[in-house]
Amino acid sequence: MSMSLTETPATAPLLDLRQVSRTFGSRPDLAARIAIALGAAKPPPVVHALDEVNLTVRKGEVLGLVGESGCGKSTLGRIAAGILPPSSGQVLWKGEDRQRLSGRQLRDADLAAQMIFQNPMAALNPRMSIETLVAEAPQIHGMIQGDRSAYVDDYLRKAGFDPAMKRRLPHQFSGGQRARVNIARALAVQPDFLVCDESVAALDVSIQAQILNLFMDLREQLDLTYLFVSHDLGVVEHISDRVAIMYLGRVVEEAPVAEVFARPNHPYTQQLLAEVPRIRPGKRRFAAMKGELPSPLDPPKGCHFHPRCPMAHERCRVEVPKRREIAPGHSSACHLNDQQAA
Ligand SMILES: Nc1ncnc2c1ncn2[C@@H]1O[C@H](COP(=O)(O)OP(=O)(O)OP(=O)(O)O)[C@@H](O)[C@H]1O
């Protein structure tokens, strides 16, 4: 089913994130800034959602992104889709720095990367017909040359939605059908890259499988590349070529999917994948991790994972481990790898 990277060794990066950080915090007004400068007030808290992330998405691949809630997956997804700017670092789209793009180039890059969210109802205007919803963006951007109705039908069919029902409103459909409309809407602007943020999480398991299969069929048909954000390891294992594991704003490990499940290297990944009672046969769930995820308002120094790591030593408390290759295509950010290498 999925094309392995070994079959496409020369695939060029579609998207390259270099040292990308993103913080969130309220910007104090002038009076507050003066008070802070004079030491009369404390600076407002800043959330470090992403911390110097390096990540490459290659053309044609499905890159799965996993990690506990709040580790920065959605923030990374939104930056990858171009709908949120980084606070620092570079986002290279097809080799070009997004910040340097303007006019038509920026518009093309924006259209080429589309995001598919978890809740299609929130993304679909309840007063618009399915036809209007799918036609809206391509019409604005002058992408419909001929018959609008035929254009819409084509994309609805690609998403497995019966065009005969296109005059109805979103609430007249089930969650699965609405997910298909949402997908048709994204496809209608002819993207190269889909960022799926928990796109199947809200659906029943049988519908989830249908939508995942649809994503994979579309990948073949339309030559799509995916960044697939999910908290469900079963879904990620099923759909991805490579997996990136995030912990508290950092990518701590990255490897081809089979490699990461067979030989997890980072202690965080190992704990995440640890054997747990299976709720459904064949379904992998996150292991219940010891300790709480520290606050991104005040992340631990050194390796962010050290307070929860059974193997932590002094160096982990002070020095940020660099992610480096430990096997072909497999990188991990753990000081223990240096000790083993030595
Ligand atoms: N617009 C925002 N303003 C302030 N803080 C934000 C904003 N967006 C995200 N955050 C914070 O950034 C951190 C990372 O959030 P993000 O949604 O990227 O994580 P996540 O891994 O996708 O979590 P989840 O799986 O729960 O969606 C969190 O602490 C979150 O509260």
UniProtKB/TrEMBL annotation:
GO terms for biological process: peptide transport; transmembrane transport. It is found in: Cell inner membrane. One of its GO terms (molecular function) is ATP binding. SMART domains: AAA. InterPro entries: AAA+_ATPase, ABC_transp_ATP-bind, ABC_transporter-like_ATP-bd, ABC_transporter-like_CS, Oligopep_ABC_C, P-loop_NTPase. Coiled coil: none annotated. It holds the Pfam family oligo_HPY. GO terms for cellular component: plasma membrane. The keyword Transport applies. Its main location: membrane. PANTHER family: D,D-DIPEPTIDE TRANSPORT ATP-BINDING PROTEIN DDPF-RELATED, TRANSPORT ATP-BINDING PROTEIN. This is Peptide/nickel transport system ATP-binding protein. It comes from Salipiger marinus.
